[in-house]
Amino acid sequence: MTSADSSPLTTHVLNTGDGVPAAKVDVSLHRLDSKLMIWNMLSVGTTNEDGRCLGLVSREAFSPGMYKLRFETGSYWENMGQNSFYPYVEVVFTITETEQRFHLPLLMSRFSYSTYRGS
Amino acid sequence: MAGSPSPLTTHVLNTAMGVPCSNMALSLYQQDPSTNAWSLITTGTTNADGRCPGLITKQIFTSGVYRMRFETAQYWESIGETCFYPHVEIAFTINDPGQKFHVPLLLSRFSYSTYRGS
Predict the structure, then answer these.
(1) Could you tell me if A78 lies within 8 Å of chain B, comparing CB atoms?
(2) With an 8 Å Cβ cutoff, are B91 and A86 in contact?
(3) How large is the average pLDDT for residues B21-27?
(4) In its UniProt record, which GO terms are filed under biological process (chain B) (predicted)?
(5) Which of A48, A96, A102, B20 has its Cβ near the most Cβ atoms within 10 Å?
(6) Which one of 3.40.50.1980, 2.40.50.140, 3.50.50.60, 2.60.40.180 gives the CATH number of domain A9-115?
(7) A52 annotated binding-site participant
(8) Which residues pair with A47 in a beta bridge?
(9) Any CB–CB contact under 8 A between A65 and chain B?
């Protein structure tokens, strides 16, 4: 398989409705500029066949703060010819300990989703 | 409360402690389909059962995209804990406003889930 992802922040998108990884989901990572109160996009990518999106952020760029992972889930379901209750999913989280690894999966179906902080 | 019940409801549950999330601040936004601008429809606080009646009236509940925002970190802080999620926003699309829509939030300090209920 592919080499391990060196990004301290990883994700994994799973289509729990069909029991498969969600491939070709556009994902973007943003960090909040707390002085200006605006979101800056750090990276954008697409999930691979395994539902993963490598290289979200480098260790160097991974500073403490408020982050947002945005998943274009509505487009994913549309490309499969189906509708979904959610046009997109955004997960906003706070990072204080940047030496740790953070795994933020998204388990989703057309009418539900869940996420958790993994490692 | 007078008037017919809201066609949109929520229920916030603290799955870590097995209790409803009471006193959680939340807000509902509606997106203007022509400008994509969001407008605030209502703000509220969950009651002892984790519910917030009266989110929206049938009259203004039109088809379109909505966003419900839950002040999750504030809730956990009020009970002396931190939360990985400063807030949770759930955006959803209403195509048939004649139906009832239940958008619950099942929440712990490090996880959450939601589903379309009725």
Answers:
(1) no
(2) yes
(3) 98
(4) purine nucleobase metabolic process
(5) A102
(6) 2.60.40.180
(7) yes
(8) none
(9) no
